[in-house]
């Protein structure tokens, strides 16, 4: 495989599957976690390694090291591997997805921004989702007529925080997810519910369905539900562990036990809540953006800049969603006719937010 984002949580899990099933790893792409990358190089012996910055090339223990966006695209082209795991975070994952598809490679996609930003121009026929929610929806599909698809949300770091305290929460509080440990950006996206908005957009492009929604399930045991036309519903229940969707994406069929089954008696009970825009302001555009999913490019660009500003302590937590909504209103008439339009709106939105 070609593994984009090898040192993140999904990348590490992908390597766990590679180790378990003796899969070859031809390319490792990482950011700045050079020590962990060197350990991965020693174990998996890739033919090409790519990192974020030129200055760190000298620290990588490999003879063939590329860097930056161009390095990623070059590695995808040079590799004979036909499987790409895209676990990059953010907009940077779009071009590698497009390049992989152009080359006829199969993409195991964890980089939701590829579809949020460029879904209108991405051929999904060679994409297998490895987000647990989309994997759950895929797993539940049958020949029965579907009425509605629903994905679940944990509620993020502030699901129980009094509303009047949200304005003054700190970065450390925002990064304290109640259910698991993830990367910094996705943890903030989970707290603001932007991540779940993106997952709905991703589901729309992947499954070509209009009736989509999300609800909170606070224990993160149920990942997806499908309502059928006959009035019945099914739910995908599994431990919150990315190894299962990754295994299916890479192997196609899985007969080995990847996870321990959920013990419902020990779980005891489940709690469901609606997602309220009073706590998650971004949710007020949920229905509208599902009608105009190409506007995901606007929200993504604004959100990436806003989160960077939050980490730099230039804005408060509540201003993240406020900035995204402001950009959404400003660029509401954006309607791309080509992938170049997507690249252009990304630049325009970022400049707008930085003014």
How would you describe what is shown here?
The chain has 355 residues and is α/β, with parallel strands linked by helices. It has 3 domains: 2-130, 3-Layer(aba) Sandwich (Rossmann fold), CATH 3.40.50.720; 144-239 and 276-281, no CATH class; 292-355, RNA polymerase sigma factor, region 2, helix turn helix motif (Rna Polymerase Sigma Factor, Chain: A), CATH 1.10.1740. It is 43% helix and 15% strand. The protein contains 15 helices and 12 strands. It has helices spanning 9-21, 34-44, 68-78, 94-102, 113-118, 132-140, 171-174, 184-192, 194-207, 243-251, 264-267, 286-291, 296-311, 317-330, 339-354, and strands spanning 2-4, 27-29, 48-51, 65-67, 83-86, 106-109, 127-129, 146-153, 212-217, 222-228, 233-237, 272-273. Strands 4-3-2-1-5-6-7 form a 7-stranded parallel β-sheet, sandwiched between helices. A hairpin with a 4-residue loop joins strand 10 and strand 11 (233-237). The longest helix is centred in the last third of the chain and has 16 residues, at 296-311. It starts with a strand and ends with a helix. The mean pLDDT is 95.
CATH topology of the largest domain: Rossmann fold
Radius of gyration, CA atoms, in whole angstroms = 20 Å
Alpha-beta classification: alpha/beta
Number of helices: 15
Task: Please provide the ordered H/E string of secondary-structure elements.
Answer: EHEHEEHEHEHEHEHHHEEEHHEHHHH
Largest pleated sheet: 7 strands, parallel
Helix content: 40-55%
Arithmetic mean of pLDDT: 95
SS elements, strand count: 12
* Level-1 CATH class name of the largest domain: Alpha Beta
Classified in CATH, the superfamily of the largest domain is NAD(P)-binding Rossmann-like Domain
The tally of domains stands at 3
Distance between the termini: 41 Å
The assigned CATH architecture of the largest domain is 3-Layer(aba) Sandwich
Question: Which stretches of 5+ consecutive residues score pLDDT under 50?
Answer: none
Beta-strand content estimate: 5-15%
- Spatially, the strands of the biggest sheet line up as 4-3-2-1-5-6-7
